Amino acid sequence: MTKTLQLGIAGLGTVGAEVARQIIANHNHFTKQAGMPVMVTAVSARNADTDRGFSMQGIQFCDNPLELASMDNVDVVVELIGGSEGVALDLVQAAIANGKHVITANKALLAHHGYKLAVQAEKAGVMLAAEASVAGGIPVLKTLRESLSGNQITRITGILNGTCNYILSTMQHQARDFDDVLAEAQALGYAEADPGFDIDGVDAGHKLALLGAIGFGTAPSIDAVDMTGVRAITMTDMENASNLGCTIRLLAEAEQNDDGEVLMRVRPVILPLDNQLAKIDGPLNAVTFTGTPIGAVTAIGPGAGAGATASAVLADIIDLALGRISPFFGVPADQLAAAPHRTAPQKPERFFIRLKVYDRPGVLADITTILKDHAISVESLLQSGRSDDGENGDVPVILTTHEAAPQAIAAASAELAQLPAVLAEPVILTIGQD
Ligand code: HSE
Question: Angle, nearest 10°, between helix axes 87-97 and 107-124?
Fold first, then answer.
C-alpha cells in the first residue's frame, strides 16, 4: 500500500457523498486516526456535475465505475452503488481480482454473494469490509465478530430496518396512515432505492442473513430467511395493538437450536409497550445478541441515513489503513459450515388475526369453526360497528388466540382466506416474542 490511502468511491448518493465530504473536510482527523493521509482520488456517479457539497478538484471522475477496479491511484474501492447483481457485483469482483481492498454498505450483495466474495478476498489477501451493511451506524458486525467472539451465540433479535421502524412508530405515535409515512421516510433518505425492499422485509432479511452467518458460523443464505413485511399493516392493526397495551414492530430473529438448526425470520410482531424493542422509535435500529457466557447484550442506534451509514464506512477505512483486517465472517470463509435451510417455527405462540369480512349473519360462526377445527383457542373476538353498506359492506373482525402451533395458524389462515365472506388475505401477527 502507498503511504497515502487512496479511495475510489463508486456511487455518490446520500451515503457516498457524505463519506467523501467527511474525508475531505476532516483531512487532519483522518490522517491522525488512520496513521496516514486518506484521499479520495477517484469517484464514479451517474452525474459528474451535481453539487454534492465537496470540491472535485484533484479527484478523477469516471463515467464507468468498473474503471475504479483497475486504476493505479485507487487502493480501495468503496462500493456504494447497491444491488445484489450487475455493476456492484462486477465492480467488487474486479477490484478483488486486481488486488484492491473493498469496503461496501451493500447487504444485498453480501447476503447473495458474500461467501464467494469472502473466499475470493481472502485468497487475494485483500480486505472485504461492510460494517455499514447492517444496522447503519451501530457497530454490530464488529461487535459480533470481535467483541463477542468468545461466546456461543444462540439468538440474535433486532429491529434492522429503519424505514419500517419509522413507519410503524410514527403510525403508533401520530396515528398517520402507512402510505403517508412511507413517503416521508423516503424523503428523509432512509428507504432503499426500491422501497419494496424495506416494506416487504427483504432489506432486514439481507441483514439478518449476514448476522446469522457471523453469529452461527454458517455460510450466508438469504433463502433460509422467512420474510414477511409490513405492507398489510393498517391503523386498525395499530389501534388494536394499542388496545392490548402493545405496539407493532418489524422484528428480525435468528436462532440456533441444540441440533444446530438455524431459524431466521423477519415479521411484524405485536410487542407489549414495556418490551425493550417496543420503545425503539423512528429510524433507530436495535440488536440483541444472546449467548454464553455473556447472556444478552443490546446495541441501539441510528440504523439508516447518510450520517449513520457513512460513520460505519469511515470506520472500515480507518481499520484498513491501520491493518486491522479480519475475515468478513469472523472466521475464514472456507471454514464456515454449510448454509442453513429454511426451518419452520415449532414453538406455540399467541396470535392476532384481522379479517376483512362482509357484515352478515353466520360469518363469525364460520370463522370460529375453522379455528376450532385446527384446535386454536380464541382469547378475544371483536367485531364492532356496521359498514355503511350494511350486509354488502365490510367490517374488520379482530381475534386474539391463546398459544397455538404456528402450523395450525398457517393452515387455518389458508382456510379463512377461502371463506366467501372473507374479502382479503388475513393479517396474522404474533403477539410477543417467543
Ligand atoms: N433502507 C435501510 C433502512 C437503510 O431503512 O434501514 C439502509 O440499510
Answer: 10
The CATH classification number of 5-104 equals 3.40.50.720
What are the pLDDT digits (tens) for 218-269?
999 999 999 999 999 999 999 999 999 999 999 999 999 888 899 999 999 9
Closest atom, ligand 1, to C-alpha of 285? 6
CB 18 within 8 A of CB 310: yes
Neighbours of 48 (CB within 10 A): 12
pLDDT band at 434 (very low <50, low <70, confident <90, very high): low
Q: Closest Cα partner for 304 from 208, 161, 170, 125? A: 161
Domain with CATH 3.30.70.260 in the chain: 350-431
Cα of 302 from ligand 1 centre, angstroms: 10
Q: State the Cα–Cα distance between residues 381 and 126, nearest whole angstrom.
A: 59
d(C-alpha 433, C-alpha 337), whole Å: 28
Do residues 261 and 121 touch, judged by C-beta distance below 8 A? no
Other beta carbons within 10 angstroms of residue 263's beta carbon come to: 21
Distances (CA, A) of 260 to 153, 180, 217, 247, 378: 11, 43, 11, 32, 34
Q: 378-382 and 350-358 as β-strands: parallel, antiparallel, unpaired?
A: unpaired
CATH number of 350-431: 3.30.70.260
Q: How far apart, in whole angstroms, are the C-alpha atoms of residue 330 and residue 220?
A: 12
Residue 346 corresponds to which amino acid? Q
CB 177 within 8 A of CB 233: no
Q: What is the pLDDT of residue 360?
A: 86
Name the closest-CA residue to atom 8, ligand 1: 304
Number of neighbours of residue 420 by Cβ within 10 angstroms: 10
CATH 3.30.360.10 fits 140-302, yes or no: yes
Amino acid, single-letter form, for residue 197: F
User: Which protein residues are within 6 Å of ligand 1, measured from CB?
Assistant: 136, 161-163, 190-192, 198, 203, 303-304
User: What span, in angstroms and rounded, lies between the C-alpha atoms of 196 and 175?
Assistant: 22
Q: Which residues of the chain form CATH 3.30.360.10?
A: 140-302
Nearest CA to ligand 1 atom 4: 304
Start-end ranges of CATH 3.40.50.720 in the chain? 5-104
For residue 383, what pLDDT is reported? 85
| 355 Cα to the center of ligand 1, angstroms | 30
What single DSSP character describes residue 392? G
